[in-house]
Each structure stands twice: as C-alpha cells, then as structure tokens.
User: Fold this.
Amino acid sequence: MTKTSPLVGAPLGPTMFRLAIPGVIGALLFSTPGLIEARFLKASGADALAAVALVYPLIILAAMFSAGAIGGAVSGLTARAIGAGDHEEASSVLVCAVLISIAGGLLMWALVVRFGPLLYEYASSNSTVVLAAQRYATLVFPAITVYWLVNMLCSVLRGSGDMVRPALVAAALLLSYTVLAWMIIPVQGTGLNEAIKAAALAMSGSFLIALFVAIWFVTRRNQPVRFRARAFRWQTLIRILKQGLLAASQSVMTITYAMITTVLFSRFGTEWLAGFGLAVRLELIMVPVIFGIGSSLIAIVGAYVGAGQREKAISIAWRGVLINAGLVGCIGLLLALFPGTWCGLVGSDAVVIEHCSQSLRIVAPTYLFFALGLGCYFGSQGLNTLKFPVIGAMLRLSVVATGLFWVSGATSINTVLYLVALAVVVYGVFVTVGLKLGPWRKRTL
Assistant:
C-alpha cells in the first residue's frame, strides 16, 4: 500500500496550528540576524546603516529566491509528491533542489560582483556610503551559495510537513550570528570599514554553521525524503524551474520595488535613507509571520492537491490567507499608532528615529494588504496558480516606479510615503480579487 501524506485527512485546525507555530518561529529566527546587525551597527553611525541598507535588498532577494520562490516550488512539489505517495519523486525534488542551489548561488554572486556597484552608485550620491556598501557585498556574497543551500534544504523539510527542523536550523543561524557579531563587530571607537567588514564576516560565518545543521537534519534516517543521486529526473528539474522562475519574477519585481524606494528616499538625504531603511526592516518581522503560516499552507494545500482534493485545498488556502491578514493587519495598526516602539529600538540618531516613525505612521497600516497579497502567493505555490500574484507584484512596482519621474528633493516626503502605501494596497486588492473571481472561485455543481 502506498503511504501518502499524514496531512491529508488530519483535523485542519490542530494541523495548521502545529505547523504554523514552528513555521512562524523559524521564519522570525531566520530574519532576526538582519535586525541584530542593525543593532550592532547603529553605534557606527548613519553611514554604516545606509551602506547596509543599499546591499540588504540583494540578500533579501537571495532569500526570496531560495526560500520563497524556487524554494516555495520545491516545497509545493515535495508536498504534492508525498500527498500522491510518490516518494521517489520527492527524492528527485531534493536532488534537484541541491543542484539549483549551487547554480543559483554562484550566478547571483557573479551578478552582484559585476553589477552591484552600479546599483549602489545609482541609489546614493554619498561616495563613502557607496564604497562601504561595495566592501560589505564583496565579503558577504561569496557565502551566498551556502545561504541558498540552507533555504532550499529547509524548503524540502517544510514540504514534507516538518516545520520544527527548519526552525532549529534558523535558531542555529541566529545564535551563531549573535555570538560572532558580539565577538567581532566593534561597538564604538573604530572606523566605518572595520565595522562593515566585521558585520559581513559574522553574517557569512552564520550561514556556514546553519548549513552544517541543515545537512545533519536532511541526512538523518527518519527523514521521509532521502537524498539519492540516482533519483534525479529532468522532468522534475523542469517543473521546479518552470514554477520557481515564475515565482522568482515576483521576487525580482519585489526587490526592484525595494531598490526604487531606496532611490526615492535617497533624494532626501542620508538621514531619510537610513530612517526609511529602518522602517522597511520591520517587514523582516511581517514577512516571517506571513511566511510561517504560508509555508504550512504550501505543505497542507500541496498534499491535498497531490491526493486529488483540489476544492478542499482551495478552501484551506483561503482560511490561511485570512488568518495571515488579520494577524499582520493588527501588528501594522499598532506600529502605526506607536512607531517609536520599533524605531527607538533599532535607531540611535534622533533625526533617523523621527524619519523612521514618520514612515511607519503612513506605511504600517497597509501591512494588511501586503499580507493578503503575499498570503495568496504562498497558497498559489501549493495550488500552482501564480499568475495573479505575479501580475499584482507588477502593478505594485509600476505604481511606485512612477515616482522616479516626478519625485525630487522638493517633493513633500508624505507624498512619497503615500505613494508607497498606495502601491501596497493595489497589490493586495488585485491579487485577492483576481484569485477569488478566477482560479480560486467556488465551483458550482
């Protein structure tokens, strides 16, 4: 008898809770090193924070590809294979995930080395910040292949319904980064270059330690998806790349969106670039909450699709999207009312803190729509209905990109903040309505 996924037929509420809680915790832990980095670097001044703000979208892009886009395709295909009882296909997914990680990481490293400096120079006119950003990227991106492997191995674990082990990998990443950062990042009394170098080396070292932990978990005997090189299938690789690259196009648009907002706020000076950068880092908390629930959705929804119960899968996807939107919307509202709670924690300069607070008052209420769109994206990974999330990301990018033609240093800063807020609202509304009226609509008999 073929053994199928234990997620199919299990009580939905307890199952989603059991998967989502460690999923949220793990995603929060994965994102926290970036916040701790800002905490350590704030003593080095606004130039250090601004330099890292220029590079950090590229690191987020690596995470979006390896954990959210191609990693989401890996999770979805793993879940559907196990739901159908095809464990040989699940092993093929694992082998393909390793190969894609190595190729994707090396390609990204080469592209950042070649084109990264052009992005930094375009985004900031401060030569000190640009040079510091180049130094940081040069030291971090040789380890980006390791980061890809960590995320893709964890994606296979999540697709099999295991959210605990990826959370433990994330804990190893956070703990190792905290220790390394505490040991080598200077608190005060040193130059900008020394602080940037130490921060980059601490981040790279934590990637390596997390990889060792992830490999240990994947190779354990009780792991349901085994690595067998002979299981490789070209058809599986093509399916992963077809779905993953479509999802990755949304990631590219998302990171282009982040770079455009960086350019827009750099026109108002280094303090605004640093302040808005600190506000945007709050998404490192929003995204993990969405991702934690979303990754559990991929596993459950994908398992039901693999078992031939698509209508049930759609119903589950909608419940997860609404839970996401409710949680994140409440967090956004609270932070809009009390922005100093966050900005005072990660900022040291009074002007930067005020700019961060002003950003949150306008942008944070739109996190509800951000959660709607991104929740639908993760549900679509399990259902293979990514067209509307991708188009929604394109619309969000188009709205904010108009600012490149009319925003200048003389433009009201609130006008630019409202432009960013409008782009997020358009994204969430379009994706939700599009799926509701399209591939996720209720079928009538």
